[in-house]
């Protein structure tokens, strides 16, 4: 009876640690980047993909994002957004210390999030220097 009780307890512990940690594998590999612009007719490029402004674009959550926006007569807008380890990634580390399986989640994009997901693009007019 005691052996059966130990097997059941250990089985429950293994199930709980396996399914309560390592959640990053089940998160989406992309994250939505929201774009907003003050001017009309702005062309926005996010990691080489063209996007409408205002609009949304899905990007990988585990890589940095490069945003470029331009419109004729305005200075080009540049912005870089990095990613960081999110709460799921931290729980994968904690779970990995208890039970090695959750460490697998750290290799998935779900363990990371973009530092910023709402981008407001405000372009400034180019200043022309007159030659006399």
Automatic annotation (TrEMBL):
| Organism expressing this protein natively | Syntrophotalea acetylenivorans
As given in the record, the signal peptide range reads: 1-22
Signal keyword on record: yes
Q: What is this protein called?
A: PEGA domain-containing protein
UniProt keywords, alphabetically: Signal
Q: Domain of life, per the record? A: Bacteria
């Amino acid at each position: 009876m005691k052996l059966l009780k130990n097997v059941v307890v250990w089985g429950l512990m293994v199930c709980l640690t396996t399914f309560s940690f390592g959640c990053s594998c089940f998160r989406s590999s992309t994250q939505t980047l929201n774009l907003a612009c003050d001017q009309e007719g702005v062309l926005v490029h996010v990691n080489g993909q063209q996007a409408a402004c205002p609009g949304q674009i899905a990007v990988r959550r585990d890589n940095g994002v490069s945003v470029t926006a331009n419109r004729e007569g305005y200075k080009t807008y540049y912005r870089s957004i990095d990613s960081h380890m999110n709460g799921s990634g931290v729980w994968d580390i904690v779970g990995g210390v208890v039970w090695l399986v959750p460490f697998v989640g750290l290799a998935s994009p779900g363990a990371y999030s973009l530092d910023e997901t709402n981008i407001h693009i405000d372009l400034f007019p180019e200043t022309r220097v007159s030659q006399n």
